[in-house]
Design a protein that fits this description.
Blueprint: H1 3-21, H2 30-43, H3 45-48, H4 52-67, E1 76-77, E2 90-97, E3 100-104, H5 107-115, H6 117-122
Helix pairs in contact: 1-2, 2-5
């Protein structure tokens, strides 16, 4: 398969996951958010086929980028990684991974993230910079 096709397929799956998860499970989308997590994990399939050491290195790079979204590098990802960084994460729904505390917005997002942590990290859609995070979600 061509790289363009794989990227397009991965992008479409991630966009579907974002659309299904936006607004989060607190509005009754628990089953669709779980499906979105699976779709995002499948979209990252080409990346997860890499050797475990490569996956771990990529996951740590992704976590470092996610940590910087709020403008503070403190090993705390304060935006919900499962909701494409649109929702504020909450300390009570945090997961410790690779030396980072990833805060999710709800119990459902936490459970989805914990089902396959590595796939969830590799599928994160991290804004390029803080300006890409919608106003009012900071």
């Amino acid at each position: 398969m061509s790289q363009t096709f794989l990227r397009s397929t991965r992008l479409m799956a991630v966009l579907a996951a974002v659309l299904l998860c936006s607004g989060c499970p607190e509005k009754g989308a628990k089953d669709t958010a779980s499906d979105a997590t699976g779709a995002a994990a499948a979209a990252a399939g080409a990346d997860t086929a890499a050797a475990p050491a490569e996956q771990d290195a990529k996951a740590e790079t992704m976590l470092a980028r996610a940590d910087a979204v709020d403008g503070t590098v403190d090993h705390v990802v304060s935006k919900c990684a499962m909701c494409a960084f649109y929702m504020d994460g909450r300390p009570e729904f945090s997961v410790d991974v690779h030396g980072y505390k990833v805060q999710l917005c709800s119990e459902h997002c936490k459970e989805s993230f914990e089902k396959d942590t590595k796939a969830a990290i590799l599928a994160m859609q991290i804004p390029k910079d803080a300006a890409d995070v919608p106003a009012g979600t900071e």
